[in-house]
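Journal club side-thread
Mid-discussion, someone asked how the predicted structure for our own chain would compare to the paper's figures. Pasting it here so we can look after the session.
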Amino acid sequence: MPLIRRKKASENDNNPTTSNPTPDEKEEEDKNDTKKVNAKKARKAKSKNKWSCVDSCCWFVGCVCTVWWFLLFLYNAMPASFPQYVTEAITGPLPDPPGVKLLKEGLRAKHPVVFVPGIVTGGLELWEGHQCAEGLFRKRLWGGTFGEVYKRPLCWVEHMSLDNETGLDPPGIRVRAVSGLVAADYFAPGYFVWAVLIANLARIGYEEKSMYMAAYDWRISFQNTEVRDQTLSRIKSNIELMVATNGGNKAVIIPHSMGVLYFLHFMKWVEAPAPMGGGGGPDWCARHIKAVMNIGGPFLGVPKAVSGLFSAEARDIAVARSIAPSVLDNDLFGDFGLQTLQHVMKMTRTWDSTMSMIPKGGDTIWGGLDWSPEEGYAPSKRKQRNQGTPVSGQNETETMACEAKAVNYGRIISFGKDVAEAHSSEIKRIDFRVMHQGAIKGNNVANNTCRDVWTEYHDMGVGGIKAVAEYKVYTAGDILDLLQFVAPKLMARVSAHFSYGIADDLADPKYKHYKYWSNPLETKLPNAPDMEIFSMYGVGIPTERSYVYRLTPSSDCYIPFQIDTSANGGDEDSCLKGGVFTVEGDETVPVLSAGYMCAKGWRGKTRFNPSGIRTFVREYDHAPPANLLEGRGTQSGAHVDIMGNFALIEDVIKVAAGATGEDLGGDQVYTDIFKWSEKINLPL
């Protein structure tokens, strides 16, 4: 400061107009300098104490970790019975698990048990891959934590896809099914599939030598699982071994979901002569199988498969898309530029197995423009009950009269709500099949700009897309032509592996081909009169039956069709919500598909069941868990959650221990499946 003052003084000396400062002015100047210094020190102190965003993040992470480790410590320190004590204090005493209950009643392991998982529930692991998959040898790409989906999504999609020409492995990639009971006991950590059933069977004496998980690569066609992996031969050998080492007791087979169709294919394959079949002879099933207990079986297909292949969505995806369109339509993984649904469509259209669940039987089974077997159905106001509340009798529902307009369930796809509700005589349709040659070859700039998210829709051009929409409405009889139009590569592959019609004459030699073996309407059951077949499925949950679609805004890389989530019935109890018409079912498989064959198609001696195998329909009425402590519940009828349904597990254990369908009480029905089956005019 003295230097500054001297400098100022010298300047003032040279300026004749300036006089020397007075003592008061000097004092005021010193005060100002002091204030500046103090202010500077205060700013420095404040900047040191400022709470930055990084500090906040670190504090939050630290708190979460501290709480997590504290809770983990308490969980490990508390007695093992404490969680059950808390649950029972809130909900009352818990019932014994089925295995414990039946063990007390004297049941013991008898018949060997074979589990056949369905689509997507079995784990898949990498055996060979490209450079981007380095470090993933024998690690799960499907099932488990799904960590690779987030770490390297494009690489994951590449390795989960199959060759679009052959339906088998792409060059340099080998993904195979996980083996053993761990293949499908849990789909993801904490999300059981077969684990609860396995644990309860173990209660009465079962172990791995008397239980077998028939794991297979659920992406490829059924016959190709034998061609590539010899899976069908392994199932045959394991069943023979288990029967031989368990005192000659026949096996109880428990397929779930698509595994029902896979095992139907197996029963024809194992009896057919080599090389197409397993060469077991016409009595193999009679000698080795006691019962087939099908859980949630899509015998006649599911409409959900159509929407999945047509627009890569179902009801839940459509709702999510309407809430947050940018998440699914644009970039789920923004840094990677990954259009989510487009990649899902590109990947799943290489999975030939999805075509096994396309609706079978055409309009005869699923209905036409103005009729359906479920005609007159309305959502049932089931008496609300939580778990533990017994059902006093069958069909305990308060069924409403239909709404003002009847629902045309036979119209699986309708473009517009007005089309879905109009009489067929009022609908003007332009046949897209007539336009096939010109429309599908239209030019579209998307072929050059979409790169990795290119789908077959980009070959159709604007004309082809409009042609699909102008046909207005599609029944089950039109679906194959529609898919041939929009997914020709997929259809070219699967036409050699699956069929969807109704056989006129089952004695025709053509039905010896494996493409017919998974269609119950084009094949016969084995000659095994002592065998029993069960159809076991949940009911009481709205299940997708048909859809209202709309054209999407034009965009190069978008899928051109979407479920119209704005289409609603206008009433709380309407069958139409969010562009989806629902019927009775287990949330995935409608009752008609799960129950018809055992209710009528195979009931007694029919042309599809010439030996008169006994069939039983066992429905399980859905009851949601009473509270969060009950998890997914013990009385659920949902498609996967039913695997933890205590009543179903009891039925399975009883049959495995030697009981018959009659011992279980025969049919157990809550819906109108027998009434709907009678409406289907199918010669038997």
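Post-session note: The radius of gyration is 33 Å.
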